[in-house]
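Lecture 7 notes: from sequence to structure.

We start with a single chain of 152 residues. Read the sequence below before looking at the structure.
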Amino acid sequence: MLYVFDLDGTLIDSQAAVIEAYRAAGVDMPADAWGAPVGDWCSPAQHELKQKLYPKMLQEYAYIGPARQLWNYLVQDERCIATGASRKSADAALEFLGIDPAELALCGASTEAKAEFIEKKMSEHDMVIYVDSDHAIGRSMQWRTKCAILTP
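Now the structure, written as tokens:
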């Protein structure tokens, strides 16, 4: 069995940290920015500044998410992380959580890419449990009986 965890909102609640990092970079994040390509609403220079500010904002605004206790219970070969966050943001969040970056299996992924990743993992394991605070992946595809979605 394999547990695939989302990062933001699941292992870490970083929404306020993201908003504050962009605000400090001079960007008021639009409400519809979550999941949209950053280039649609932010300049590359502002995004780069946000990336530099993000680790500090994590320390001030983020907290450990609801699924972290389950993560701690599992052994390393039973778990991995698939996230839409950029590599820099994911690495900062993992450092905040004290999780080895080697457990990041997929980053910068769209909902469709996560679904494809989970489909691939389903062919490799008897059972895959996807742990996410958002139901987007479950809504995006028909799950086979080998996969369950757990929302903390």
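DSSP finds six helices and seven strands in the chain. Keep this in mind for problem set 3.
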